[in-house]
Amino acid sequence: MKITKKTVLVTGGGSGIGYAIAQLLIQKGNKVIISGRNPAKLEKAAKEIGADYIVSDVTDADSVASLVKNLETDYSDLSVLINNAGVGFVYKLGEGANAVEKARQEFDTNYFAPVRLIELLLPLLKKQAEAAIVNITSNVAFHPLVVLPTYSDAKTALHSHSVALRLTLSSDTNIKIFEVMPSLINTDATKDMGGEQHGLPPEVAAQDIYKGINEDRNEIFVGEASQQYADYFADPKAAIAKFNQGLY
């Protein structure tokens, strides 16, 4: 799918991968709307890269309904949705971990939010001659990281949903489903994970995402994720042990 002269929504577009892919898509001749919860952050980002913005909390049903209504009214040619907004907690499972509350927040943002937004935007996307949904998951979508246990759960769920959605929509729509699985990226959200020391620049991720979509690759790997994926399917037990070496 060639992404040029398209209208694109990027959730969580005020920073990190969302900001980088929004900026690149604008440079490639697309109209981009970024969304997020922080008005000041969004306005600043939008001015910097030349995007439109809509303040919206993807975990709030009423806020999302308002976002969708706004898009239907003012951006009726929307043809690409990039589900990028995410949250993750660095911790280990065990007594006193408060895993349920952490998991609830992670699933609300990383799984239920994109599932809701996709369903609500399907009628609009189906009107376009060509459309795409891009779900940003993670390398932990195919094997868990013990210091991101419930984040891994949520991204695994979104991976499964992406596969089912791709198969479902392929029979009677022109909507393509892309899944992006990055390894560690240097963003504000990954500081506690060593992102500043070991993560790839978000601009690298944006370039890989753009190239993958243009090449119609359903699954787009960024950084080390491609090799990790190959290692996992060659020997799952060994790959998981290597991935979590020194963490448990």
Question: What features would you describe in this structure?
Answer:
The protein has helices at residues 16-27, 39-49, 61-74, 99-126, 149-170, 195-198, 202-214, 225-234, 236-243; strands at residues 7-11, 31-36, 52-55, 78-83, 131-136, 175-182, 219-222. The chain has one domain (7-243): Rossmann fold (3-Layer(aba) Sandwich), CATH 3.40.50.720. Strand 1 (7-11), helix 1 and strand 2 (31-36) form a beta-alpha-beta unit. The model has no long low-confidence stretch (mean pLDDT 95). The relative contact order is 0.13. Strands 3-2-1-4-5-6-7 form a 7-stranded parallel sheet, sandwiched between helices. Helix 1 crosses helix 7, helix 4 runs parallel beside helix 5 (149-170) and helix 8 packs across helix 9 (236-243). It is α/β, with parallel strands linked by helices. It comes from Mucilaginibacter terrenus. Belongs to the short-chain dehydrogenases/reductases (SDR) family. One of its GO terms (molecular function) is oxidoreductase activity. Keywords: Oxidoreductase. Pfam families: adh_short.
